[in-house]
């Protein structure tokens, strides 16, 4: 499609509809490319403003823009938000009756909307394809585009229907693909499978400056969560668990403590899931316990924390889920509660899957990288951005590792014992066997192989097997050792071992310390950032004027309930905080608050001004 629309029109649309004067990093380049008729691939972290990259061009382009989105809840929230800004939008999905669907399609054909959201499964409907043949569709935007890749963490075969739809559109539309996270392999797969034509690629970076990442090992998970939630009463958060049983148990336990929480997993009736998600979106429930079924499409902007009760299957899935905290740019805490049983659970899932052997090997490789993240002593944010291919970066200064004040000790001699033992075992055994040999365990299998006659047998007999395993895991986490990509991974050397043995590089690790008694499981040791919070002890702890912020939130909630909308669709928390800072008293001053477009100013401005004036 040959286009060359004026970028000034995009800036004007941004100001009019969204209340901002400038685009964020990456947005301008993507929007300029789309307005010039170029395909694009945008990799932008959660909260970076991916949606605006196709919503602004949709306003300026002729006809209707088709948005392919995987979840009904995401469509509804985005459509509600667009209509609130004054941009006519609609969705067609399974939540509509046949009569409603037909009426919606008539409205689309009549040119009532600028954006139409559909699920990929809808593209297989001949009735819908007949509609498409009648429409002028200049742009197709594919949200959560990693779903099209077999190497992504959430592959959905239905996404393959997107390309087939192009046959029904007379003039090929511009194609735009967006996702929050994608490795280089996944990016190339997206381009290939969606048939993007020499796309402009923009990756804005994976670092989230407002998130504080933590890994907690060896804790009693329930005690930790109870302690954590007490310190954040009133804050919205998600607790992810790996199984339905874990969700049900944690949910019942929280309610037993008097903490109002919802639960969400694929085993619940659809109406229960919808009711729970709706309550969470509307701030009627502050905490959700869920499997990863509560995933993409969580558009709630004021989630202040995400706790992983269990370790996810890979870093891509972890960062997608953890990144649901702090979408509004305000502080968010992301805590991974790690236990060795999590690894066993994820291996079970891999073995029970119907994937071929190549895919299973890849899944084991990704799982090993997740385990390394759980044990690394390096900056957690830096570890993640490097996983996604960004080599340049500085420690974040916020994560649990960057702020860890424990003493660093020289562990070179212990590390050399581990390296020597692995060498004598010909790099053919796993972590547990190496630890047993060094501990001098009286193990039948060990004796059967004759390992009790090795020079390294019992060299670390003064330590527990668990402590030796922790040492080996930390050496894996810090890149001295690696695990093979298999169900029973073998410990092998990396090039860093040569630097220690031949170049004299020293190995340092932090002193293990006991968790506080109320958080420890059976007195085990581990690392914990415990009660540390980047967001303050309450939902309003980070506002410049907590009393005014509370009053504005209450007004927003009343308006949202009256209009049957989630509160963040009215205004994000960040907009309310900006009101607290600026304290506008006139409509003109309110227009200067970032995030308030003309439609929302006309609709809600006076009510919020009255609350601000009364407070002043």
Automatic annotation (TrEMBL):
It catalyses: Couples ATP hydrolysis with the unwinding of duplex DNA by translocating in the 3'-5' direction. It comes from the Bacteria. Keywords: ATP-binding, DNA damage, DNA recombination, DNA repair, DNA-binding, Helicase, Hydrolase, Isomerase, Metal-binding, Nucleotide-binding, Zinc. The keyword Metal-binding applies. It is an enzyme of class 5 (isomerase). The keyword DNA repair applies. SMART domains: DEXDc (SM00487), HELICc (SM00490), HRDC (SM00341), RQC (SM00956). Residues 520-532 have a biased composition (Low complexity). Residues 31-200 form the Helicase ATP-binding domain. Residues 542-616 form the HRDC domain. Its EC number is 5.6.2.4. PANTHER family: ATP-DEPENDENT DNA HELICASE Q1, DNA HELICASE RECQ FAMILY MEMBER. This is DNA helicase RecQ. It comes from Cohnella yongneupensis.
């Amino acid at each position: 499609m040959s286009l060359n629309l004026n970028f000034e029109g995009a800036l004007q649309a941004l100001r009019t509809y969204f209340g901002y004067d400038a685009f964020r990093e990456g947005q301008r380049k993507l929007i300029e490319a789309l307005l010039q008729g170029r395909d694009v691939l945008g990799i932008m972290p959660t909260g970076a403003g991916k949606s605006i990259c196709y919503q602004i061009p949709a306003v300026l382009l002729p006809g209707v823009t088709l948005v392919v989105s995987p979840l009904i809840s995401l469509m509804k929230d985005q459509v509600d938000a667009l209509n609130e800004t004054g941009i006519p939008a609609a969705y067609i999905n399974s939540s509509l009756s046949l009569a409603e669907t037909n009426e919606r399609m008539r409205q689309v054909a009549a040119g009532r909307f600028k954006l139409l959201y559909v699920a990929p499964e809808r593209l297989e409907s001949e009735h819908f394809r007949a509609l498409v043949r009648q429409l002028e569709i200049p742009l197709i935007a594919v949200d959560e585009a990693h779903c099209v890749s077999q190497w992504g963490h959430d592959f959905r075969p239905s996404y393959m229907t997107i390309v087939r739809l192009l046959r029904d559109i007379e003039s090929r539309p511009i194609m735009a693909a967006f996702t929050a996270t994608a490795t280089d392999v996944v990016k190339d797969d997206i381009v290939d499978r969606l048939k993007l034509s020499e796309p402009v690629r923009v990756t804005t970076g994976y670092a989230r400056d407002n998130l504080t990442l933590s890994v907690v090992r060896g804790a009693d998970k329930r005690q930790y969560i109870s302690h954590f939630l007490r310190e954040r009463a009133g804050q919205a958060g998600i607790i992810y668990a790996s199984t339905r049983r874990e969700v049900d148990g944690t949910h019942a336990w929280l309610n037993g403590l008097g903490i109002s929480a919802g639960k969400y997993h694929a085993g619940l009736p659809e109406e229960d899931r919808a009711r729970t998600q709706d309550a969470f979106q509307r701030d009627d429930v502050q905490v959700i316990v869920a499997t990863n079924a509560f995933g993409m499409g969580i558009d709630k902007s004021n989630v202040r924390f995400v706790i992983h009760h269990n370790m996810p299957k890979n870093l891509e899935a972890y960062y997608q889920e953890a990144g649901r905290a702090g979408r509004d740019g305000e502080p968010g805490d992301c805590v991974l509660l790690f236990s060795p049983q999590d690894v066993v659970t994820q291996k079970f899932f891999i073995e029970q899957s119907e994937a071929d052997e190549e895919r299973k090997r890849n899944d084991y490789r990704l799982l090993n990288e997740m385990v390394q993240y759980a044990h690394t002593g390096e900056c957690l944010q830096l570890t993640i951005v490097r996983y996604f291919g960004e080599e340049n970066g500085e420690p974040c200064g916020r994560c649990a590792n960057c702020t860890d004040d424990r003493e660093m000790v020289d562990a070179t001699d212990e590390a050399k014992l581990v390296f020597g033992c692995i060498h004598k075992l010909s790099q053919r055994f796993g972590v547990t066997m190496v630890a047993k040999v060094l501990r001098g365990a009286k193990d039948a299998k060990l004796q059967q192989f004759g390992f009790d006659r090795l020079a390294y047998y019992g060299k670390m007999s003064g330590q527990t097997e668990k402590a030796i395993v922790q040492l080996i895991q930390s050496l894996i986490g810090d890149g001295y050792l690696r695990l093979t990509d298999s169900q029973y991974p073998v410990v092998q050397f990396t090039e860093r071992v040569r630097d220690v043995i031949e170049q004299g590089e020293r190995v340092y690790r932090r002193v293990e310390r006991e968790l506080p008694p109320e958080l420890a499981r059976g007195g085990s040791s581990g690392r914990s950032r415990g009660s540390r919070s980047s967001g303050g002890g309450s939902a309003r702890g980070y506002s410049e004027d907590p009393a005014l912020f509370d009053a504005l939130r209450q007004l927003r909630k009343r308006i949202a309930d009256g209009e049957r909308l989630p509160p963040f669709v009215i205004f994000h928390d960040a907009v309310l905080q900006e009101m607290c800072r600026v304290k506008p008293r006139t409509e003109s001053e309110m227009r200067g608050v970032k995030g308030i477009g003309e439609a929302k100013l006309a609709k809600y401005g006076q009510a919020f001004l009255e609350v601000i004036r009364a407070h002043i």
